[in-house]
Structure formats: C-alpha cells, structure tokens
Specification:
The protein has 362 residues and is α+β, with helices and mostly antiparallel strands. Strands 1, 16, 17, 18, 21 and 22 form a six-stranded mixed sheet that branches. The chain has a six-stranded antiparallel beta barrel with strand order 3-10-13-12-11-14. A four-stranded antiparallel sheet has the order 2-15-20-19, with no helix packed on it. A hairpin with a 5-residue loop joins strand 16 and strand 17.
C-alpha cells in the first residue's frame, strides 16, 4: 500500500530522487578530498624548502675581558731607625715626591763621632802591635800564641771601626727609591729606638692595578698580555705582570696585577679602575644576534649548510657584543650561514639555498 502510494505520489518520487543525488555527491567529495590531499603531500615532499644563506670566512679576533680593580703603589715601604737616639732632623716633604737617597729623618750624632775616632786609633795601635809581633817572630823572640793574640786584636779593632762607621751612616734615614712621602710617623725631638718608624714612602711609577678574576677565566691569562686601563678619566696602556696561582680562600677568585706608566705622577693609589685585558686571538665570525637559536637541550648555536646543502647546527660561544653584531666562535672557518628561514628548518634536513649578498643586519 505504501509503495503504491509512493509510486503514485509525484512529490514522494521527487524527494527520493533528491536524496539519492545528495548521497552520491557527498560520497564523491570525500574520496576526491582524500585523493587531493595525498597528491598535495606528494608534491610537497618532492620539493625542498628554500632558505637564504651567506658565505662567511673566519677572521682573527682578539677578545677582551673586563675586570674591575683598583690602583696600588708598586712598593710601599715603612722606613725604620737602625740606631737609637733623638730625632734631630725631619724633612719637610710629607706628601711630596723625593729622589732616591734624599734624607728624610736625621738622628742626633751625640758621641758617635768620638767613638768612631776611638775605633780608628785602636785599629792603628793594633796594626803596629801585630807588625811588631811579626818582626820578633822573624828574630825568634816571639811565640805563635803571642802572634795569634796580636792578630786577633787587630781584626777585632777593624770590626769595631766598621760598626762605628755603620752607626754614623745609620744616623740619616734616606729614601730607598724615588718615591712619594705618604706620612711621617714621628716628630722632631722624639726619641727613637732601633726599629722605630720614621716615614712611609710609596713608589707610584710604575703604578699597579689590581683585580680579581674567577676560576672560569683565569686559565686564559698569562704574564705579558697587553691591556688598557681606564682610571680617573684616563685610558692607559698596561701589561699584565702577575696572575695568582692560588685562589683567595674567601672569594675563590684569583688576584691579577697590571703595570702601567705613571711618569707624571698624576694617578694615585686607591683609585677605582677598569681593566680590559686583550686575550689571545681566536678564529671568529661576526653575525647578527637575531640568527642565534637553541637546540633541544637549550644550548645556543647557529644553523649553517654543509657541502650537500644539509642543515647543520653548531654550538657557539659569544666573544663580544657590539651595535653592529656579535662575534662568535664555534663555526667552521668557511661557513655557509643560513640568514633567512633558519627557524623553519632542522638539523639534518636537506634544503635549497639562495645565496644572500646583502650586508648582514643586526
């Protein structure tokens, strides 16, 4: 009955026809889309990605190390009395530059000149007695014991004379080198004992700049390296003269010393200074910092192409950073660096390269 109604009803026949056509259209679309996607995948897989690259050649680069430091005197000496007595003279030179040998403190002579003359006379007498003993020995009237005693007296008086002469020389306390008198520790009229302080002097030419470096970089330093020092608004050339072999027990850093000329004595000890140490030259490339990327382990590097246009990843170390770019080490000396498209390719992937002749921008 129902089939008869459908066959006789024109509206039912039309609806059934439309339903059948819709099902056929939907089915053909699914199969067609699958075939199209598969075809597209085959086309894409058959084509390599295109990246821009630039050929770079490594050059000798001199990296530098920045170290905070301070200036120190090359030598700091406390002058002390070698004989006791009243301070009879004190140079008016505190804070002044003095030459080597200039008298800074003078101790009263007292009776030392008389003792010196006494020692000279005693030596003369001892010499005469010794010569007489030798003459008697020749004549057979003097024993060996008497001759030995005369010789001992002569030598003893010679030693006494030497001590008296040294005491006279020690009365004047002199500058041991060209230096600046930092301070006097006594006043004229004070009584000095052996070892009492007279003055403190500083040698400021050459001037020493002292800094501390960590254990990570100390191995890169050695005596004789050139560097620049910025101190008191001046830029000076200096030479590294000392690198400690033992770290400080508290800071675990190593002391370094640089020496610079201070002929005009315009620089003082205790000033803040910045040391820029020129390290040994290394092969490096200058590249834009924007090209840096990270590998899966989070390590910094650059992507480049080998001879077969296969992407490679090189770990690099930043040596210097400037407004024009960064200097890095770790790339092959002759490198085809990927400059555009590096974020879309991975190590081991083969690509096509379009050589980039433009200047690399930061």
């Amino acid at each position: 009955m129902l089939l008869k109604d459908i066959s006789t009803n024109k509206n039912y026949r039309t609806a059934l026809l439309i339903l059948l056509l819709s099902l056929l259209w939907l089915g053909s679309g699914v199969f067609t889309s699958h075939d199209t996607q598969a075809q597209a995948d085959r086309v894409n897989s058959s084509q390599n990605l295109v990246v821009k690259a630039k050929r770079l050649e490594a050059v000798d680069f001199v990296p530098s190390m920045a170290v905070k430091g301070r200036t120190e005197a090359n030598r700091r000496v406390t002058l002390r009395a070698q004989v006791g007595g009243l301070l009879a003279f004190q140079a008016d030179a505190e804070g002044q530059l003095v030459d080597k040998g200039e008298v800074l403190c003078g101790i009263a002579e007292e009776d030392r000149a008389l003792k010196l003359q006494e020692a000279r006379s005693g030596l003369e007498q001892a010499k005469i007695e010794y010569d007489g003993a030798l003459a008697l020995k020749t004549a057979g009237y003097q024993s060996k014991q008497a001759i030995a005693a005369a010789k001992a007296r002569r030598d003893s008086m010679a030693a006494l004379l030497k001590r008296r002469e040294l005491e006279m020389n020690y009365l004047e306390i002199r500058a041991p080198f060209k230096s600046t008198v930092e301070a006097f520790n006594v006043e004229q009229g004070d009584l000095l004992n052996v070892g009492s302080q007279c003055a403190v002097v500083l040698e400021l030419d050459p001037l020493v700049v002292v800094g501390q470096v960590s254990e990570k970089v100390v191995a890169q330093l050695h005596n004789g390296m050139s560097l620049t020092v910025v101190v008191a608004g001046q830029t000076k050339q200096a030479t590294l003269r000392y690198v400690a072999s033992e770290a400080d027990a508290l800071t675990r850093t190593f002391r370094v010393e640089a020496e610079l000329s201070n002929e005009d004595y315009s620089l003082r000890a205790g000033l803040t200074a910045n040391l820029n140490i020129n390290l040994d030259p290394v092969k490096a490339h200058k590249v834009p910092s924007s090209l840096l990327s990270l590998d899966d382990a989070g390590r910094m590097g650059l992507k480049y192409l080998d001879a077969n246009n296969v992407v490679q990843f090189a770990l690099v170390q930043t040596l210097d950073d400037s407004a024009e770019g960064i200097w890095v080490s770790g790339l092959p000396n002759n490198t085809t660096l990927i400059t555009v498209g590096q974020e879309y390719v991975s190590a081991g992937q083969r690509v096509e390269a379009s050589m980039d002749d433009a200047v690399l921008e930061r």
